[in-house]
Task: structure prediction
Amino acid sequence: MRRLFTAAFASMIAGVASGLFYREFTKINGFPEGEATQLGLVHTHLLVLGFIVLLIVLLLEKAFALSESRLFGWFFWLYNAGLVLTSAMMIWHGCLTVLGQESSSMIAGIAGLGHILLSAGMVLLFLALRKRLFATKPAAPAAAPAAAAPAAAAPAVSA
Result:
């Protein structure tokens, strides 16, 4: 649970920092306001896909103990690797756009791999969630009937 909290917090910090970077980088380089660049999307991607999604998963972990599934570790690392890879490619592509340089198809390909990792992570999350939601629960022991319960012994009275 601590890993999820730390990852969500790191995504929140990175999301806020990317918004600040976007504003300052475009301002310093004289990029026209309102012009399209990938840098403006990184802020939202990190906050939603990182911070919000991981907070929701943290709540699911608290309720259903998702980390007891072997699939959960795979989800966590694949999803976060996909988030980092996708965000890094968006930042790279956005910086090139602001600087007026041509982007290559390599950036799009690597970002595509990041999206694939994100998708695979989400599939693993749902498989882990399904496993925990529909796991067979051990049968509860049958309650003993009240009549069979031993009666409390009365204290002995001396005469």
User: Anything to note?
Assistant: The chain has four helices and no strands. The two ends are 65 Å apart (CA to CA).
